[in-house]
Amino acid sequence: MAESQGGSGSKSEAALADGVRRALAHHRAGRLAEAYAHYQRLLSTHPSHPDLLNLAGAAVLQMGDPALAGRHLKGALAVRPDFPDAHANLAAALQATGAHDEARGHLERCLELKPDHLAAWRNLGNNLRLSGRPAEACAAYRRALELAPADHDTRCYLGDALHAAGEVEAAIETYRSLLAEVPDHSRALGHLAAALQQQGRLDDALTFARQAVARDPADPLFQYNLGCVLQSAGRPEEACGCYEAALKLDPAYAKAWFNLGMMRQAQGDDAAAAAAYRRLIEVAPNHPSAAHMLDAVEGRTTAIAPAQHIREIFDRYAEGFEEHLVDKLGYSAPEALRAILDAHLQSEGKTIEDKPFRRALDMGCGTGLVARQVQDLVEAIDGLDIAPRMATAARRSGLYEEVFEEDVAFFLTEGSGHERDYDLALSADVFIYIGDLEPIFAALAKRMPGGGLFAFSVEDLDEGDFKLLPTGRYAQNRAYIERLAVAQGFAVLSRDNFTLRQEWNQPIAGRAYLLRHS
User: Fold this and answer.
1) Are 385 and 315 contacting, i.e. CB atoms less than 8 angstroms apart?
2) Residue 509: phi, psi to the nearest 5?
3) What pLDDT, in 10s, does the model give residues 248-292?
4) Residues 318-332: pLDDT tens digits?
């Protein structure tokens, strides 16, 4: 009996091993449906076999069903909780459903169990990068590359994470070193183009963007990247052609719809722009900018731009921001604010040596353009910016005592600044994203002592109180500003007209104000 039972068990194990070999042969050859069918047959007689559950989960994940994959993989872990591969595969399934935090937990558990698990390190890097933690992603990718130095895709992902972390030069070097070894790596070509474009190196960016499209013309990302470079180069019709090509390949490509709308608007075709924004709302109802830009192009005025719309604009320009704004657009608001402060201080008989201000608030501080203009007048400056990458750049500048990443009104009323006092407040080109300024004036009045000064710029509006312009920015009328000032206890000391910046080779009329709190 014992011998008979032993023989039956051996046959059963042999049959299982043979079935697994057949299934794996299909799996490795990319015949996923056949592989999964084999796994299912084997699971019908071995329903709690952790290896089968893991393999079945991996196959069905590759087939594009992360929910079913998750059920198999959770079954594997219920039987064998310390199964590194099942943790890694379950993390991939969770990541595909958007459960980034839960996925990260399984990746970390996998690496506790198997510290040299290559796929887990690479996927942890992807998870962290997509979760907005690029510096940590870089560390994970570097660990993966220690295990597999020739992993070209991971080197490219490292470049992506460096770019996202604001280390654009390091990202460019990473892409270039990869392309020196693999000249036709299309992702590296495309992403190198995007990094060079961000730095304003448009000729080089155009070269690499075209190479990426030539290498893989069916990838909508590369058509989109080429469109972005052409847009930056002031070639809107060619840019539109690339965006339209990307949308033929992927009709739900939200970024391409948005940029197509912006370009059609720049060409004066408001109807085509509105159509693009409406299509964007259809494919991405929660897009942070779509409804705002549709309101702008169709002439509807709102009180304030969506916070995420503002964040994305400035995070996109964080690297190379000053070159783009100052050198290309002739941005002059910081100098205009310094000029009205100097004129006032001179009229009061005060000098720079007096350090006439104790603490300043630089609203929308960006990279520190305003702070550099006034640092010799102030004992300490706090920076405030809603965009994370801008706030990071402000901290790196060394110009600020503290930098806060908050909305202006929230900062002054409920956030980090609601108990702080400032005898100088500065706002250069911030109110182009806020139409209704009453909440800001009211909140700031409570944070300023008598005699405190408020210097700011606006885009000038001829009629009405404030208006959302077709550009997606706001302009305010002089009478509106002065009415708000009086209502909140401010006296208007000066108002100077100046050219705020250039846009599409046209000057944008601005006005700089200096108010004093009573």
Assistant:
1) no
2) -75, 130
3) 999 999 999 999 999 999 898 999 999 999 999 999 999 989 999
4) 555 556 565 566 788
CA separation for the pair 124, 135 (Å, rounded): 12
pTM over 0.90: no
Q: In the chain, how many H helices and how many E strands?
A: 25, 9
Tell me which DSSP letter residue 495 carries. E
- Each residue's pLDDT tens digit, 174-210: 999 999 999 999 999 999 999 999 888 999 999 999 9
Cα(439)–Cα(125) distance, integer angstroms: 42
Query: Hey, what's the torsion of the CAs at 174, 180, 185, 186, to 10 degrees?
Result: 80
Domains, the chain, with CATH or none: 1-115 (1.25.40.10), 314-517 (3.40.50.150)
What 3-state DSSP class applies to 456?
strand
Q: Give residue for tokens 């990746």.
A: 107
Q: Would you mind telling me the total number of residues written for the chain in this entry?
A: 518
Q: Which of 140, 183, 145, 148 is nearest to 165 (CA)?
A: 140
Task: Specify the pLDDT at position 9.
Answer: 53
Are the C-beta atoms of residues 125 and 154 closer than 8 Å to each other? Answer: yes
**Structural tokens at position 397:** 């500048």
Alpha carbon of 204 to those of 169, 187, 226: distances in Å? 14, 16, 12
pLDDT of residue 472: 94
Give the pLDDT of residue 317.
Answer: 65
Who contacts 440 (Cβ-Cβ below 8 Å, separation ≥6)?
408, 409, 412, 431, 434
Q: CA 38 to CA 40: how far, in whole Å?
A: 5
CB burial of residue 361 (10 Å; 0-12, 13-18, 19+): buried
Low-confidence residues in the chain, pLDDT < 70: 1-11, 317-329, 504
Sort strands 453-461 and 474-477 into parallel, antiparallel or unpaired.
parallel
Per DSSP, the three-state class of 453 is: strand
349: CB partners within 8 A, 6+ apart = none
- Residue 7: the pLDDT is 46
The separation between the first and the last C-alpha atoms of the chain, rounded to the nearest angstrom, is 103
